[in-house]
Amino acid sequence: MKVGIDKIGFYSPKFYIDTSDLAIARNEDPNKYLIGIGQKKQAVIPNTQDVVTMAANASYKIISHDDIDKIDLIIFGTETGVDNSKSAAIYLQNLLSLKSSARAFEIKQACYGATAGLQMAKEYIINHPDKKALVIGADVARYGINTPGEVTQGGGAIAMIVSSNPSIASFDGDSTFHSDDIMDFWRPLYSTEALVDGHYSNNVYVDFFKKTWKEYNDKNQLSIDDYSALVFHLPYVKMGIKGLRAVLSEATEDKQISLKNEFNFSKTYNENIGNLYTGSLYLSLLSLINESSNLKYGDRIGLFSYGSGAQGEFFSMKLEKSFKNAKSINDLNNLIANREKLSVEEYENIFNQWLPIKNIDIDLNWQRDDSTFFLKSIKNSQRIYSSRLEEK
Length: 392
Known about the structure:
Elements: E1 3-11, E2 15-18, H1 19-25, H2 30-37, E3 41-44, H3 51-60, H4 65-70, E4 71-77, H5 88-95, E5 103-107, H6 113-127, E6 132-141, E7 154-164, E8 169-171, E9 176-179, E10 185-186, E11 195-196, H7 198-220, E12 229-232, H8 237-245, H9 253-266, H10 270-273, H11 280-291, E13 300-307, E14 311-319, H12 326-337, E15 340-341, H13 344-352, E16 362-363, E17 373-379, E18 382-387, H14 388-391
Parallel strand pairs: 2-15, 4-5, 4-6, 12-13
Antiparallel strand pairs: 1-7, 1-8, 2-3, 6-7, 8-14, 9-14, 10-11, 13-14, 16-17, 17-18
Helix pairs in contact: 1-2, 3-5, 9-11
């Protein structure tokens, strides 16, 4: 029996900033951001969107009535949770009117949370092949105005339905993983902005990839020739390039060219959205599937997941017959193309309106947010969510 990803949905808000404009405002050469970091555009997240609403907007696009009947596991990977106790998955379950006879919980391990959820969902569906699981990777990446990490901000949500007999990709054997207690990236409880040792984090990322890559291939008697493409966790594009370069020497010249070409397809969405933390790897997978014209049924795709602090995992999936979805391609291309470009000043104003970590009552300007689901207000320390479906 095959188990894997049956559907993938994506959402990011309608605002973005051009990184060339950001570079000029920060007195930097635009190529430092465009080439040195590998980012063209960056999503800007208004305070009417958080991980719950973005996850709901991503999920709503792909969930059918049949899915609602069968989803009884909801796993929410995020490092931008809205409560230290109540999981984002419970809010999501209510917003999407999913059945209450379900397990719903949140996972946190930096950018690795969605992968942990995906692997848990895999095991669950193996034992319950008539059921489905909804796995979320949703985050808002914030480093602060005029900081070294500013160009690697962004945000959005990936929603994946895991099932037996999947349409997109099936798991291909057991994964390999490695963890260690290190301080390359963290976000203290008192802060909405992350702290990072960028150079150290880059080195650990590549080290974890090489370790899990070798162990996986040794374990499964595979080589680089057995992969049609490799996709990476992409907090920014250049990080994935460093990972790919670490193993290219194992391939022939023709294979190197092929893998580089497929990587270019896999980075298209990420370089226009920015950092999704838990969703970055799966946005890269979605970009590869939608953008590449070279892939075919049965191709093996290698995936490397990394979460600072740190956890790394490598696994592979094989593409199924219906992995190419014209509606998904059209919807996502429209989402990216029809966003509203902000000036640097407008971006800074929105960034500074992000809700602080303190007890406040506030009514938000939700009327400007045309998303299906949005955050309407905070009253008595409770988040009040709503939707266009209710407001009509």
